[in-house]
């Protein structure tokens, strides 16, 4: 994860899921394909049971729960419907909007990895 975060200057797109979740299993392939189409951003898949520390004090109640992080903080944290087009549109909105509000959410992965 550290090398992936260091190699990208764009947003960090984090999907918090669980191995037992069928929705997550189906979503993961689309998430990985989107990562290939948007190589400027770092895409990170986090199994919340294997790495709960990457959530900090936040809870995940529904899957997939996503965080989109910029250098200034979390720009989005919440549940999306499991359609990759929704995530792709959200990334498009946030990547060009440096003034977007910072929201509460998990710790920044670049900070934890660095």
Order of helices and strands: HEHEEEHH
Rg over CA atoms: 13 Å
What is the molecular shape?
globular
CATH architecture: 3-Layer(aba) Sandwich
Structural class by secondary-structure content: alpha+beta
- How far apart the termini lie comes to 10 Å
Q: What's the main sheet like?
A: 4 strands, mixed
| Uncertain residue segments | none
Amount of beta strand = 15-25%
Q: How would you state the average pLDDT, rounded?
A: 88
Would you count the extended β strands for me? 4
Number of helices: 4
CATH top-level class = Alpha Beta
How many domains make up the 3D coordinates?
1
Question: Looking at this structure, what is the CATH superfamily?
Answer: Glutaredoxin
Structure in a nutshell:
With 114 residues, this protein is α+β, with helices and mostly antiparallel strands. The protein has helices at 2-7, 22-37, 84-95, 109-113; strands at residues 12-17, 42-47, 65-70, 73-79. The model has no long low-confidence stretch (mean pLDDT 88).
Written description of the protein model:
The protein has helices at 2-7, 22-37, 84-95, 109-113; strands at residues 12-17, 42-47, 65-70, 73-79. It starts with a helix and ends with a helix. The protein is built from 4 helices and 4 strands; from the N terminus they run H-E-H-E-E-E-H-H. With 114 residues, the chain is of the alpha+beta class. A hairpin with a 2-residue loop joins strand 3 (65-70) and strand 4. It has a single domain (2-113), classed as Glutaredoxin, CATH 3.40.30.10.
